[in-house]
Design goal:
Layout: E1 43-48, E2 61-66, H1 72-80, E3 98-103, E4 106-110, H2 121-137, E5 141-149, H3 156-168, E6 172-177, H4 184-198, E7 205-207, H5 216-231
Parallel strand pairs: 2-4, 2-5, 5-6, 6-7
Antiparallel strand pairs: 1-3, 3-4
Length: about 230
Amino acid sequence: MKAAGQRGSGKAGKAGNEGAHRGAPLSHPDRGPANPLHAQPIEFVGSFPDPLVRVEPRLPEIAFVGRSNVGKSSLLNALVDRPGLARVSGTPGKTTLLNFYRLPGFYLVDLPGYGFARASKSARTGYQRLMTGYLRGRDTLAGIVWLLDIRHPPSKEDREMQELLSASGRPVLATFTKVDKLTRSALANQTRQLARFLGLEPEQVQLSSSRSGLGIAELATSIVAAAGERSA
């Protein structure tokens, strides 16, 4: 994970704002075939509207953010091998609070999805306040998993989120979801194009599919490493 750079000149690895604070690099560690989260107990702690809510015990947090239809709940369930832990809704924009899940040594935090077209102006304002408060003010935040649907070019809301992530200075791992929907050749091409457009380096990108399981163990390993570095 690294801090997500702002969109720049289109050259991979270049941030659009060289003055933006960048989080400490957190690249993919050596990986084995097993998912380190599958054997871990996990419990739902609660849902909270306050971005600075105090959750006990104080542990590192790994947050998940993405558009409201990017498959965030499905990915969380696949990571911990607990179908139904994070509710998968057929209605985009269902998550409106911070949902905390505790594992041994750290929390997974499911953030509300952005870009829901039917959201009211007041709801969008509240969302912006919640996200800004959490990403910039949360001192226990160890890293962010930013989910993007690999089938689509970044939207206006995706680029706005990248600006916010860059300004937060937090370590970020961009995770391209739903890769099972593309052929192998289309996947390679789309990965290059999307990473280049966002100005991301190879170690800032992870491919994943909740349906096929591709990249799930690797993402879990990166998450455990991020939480471990923060608590060390």
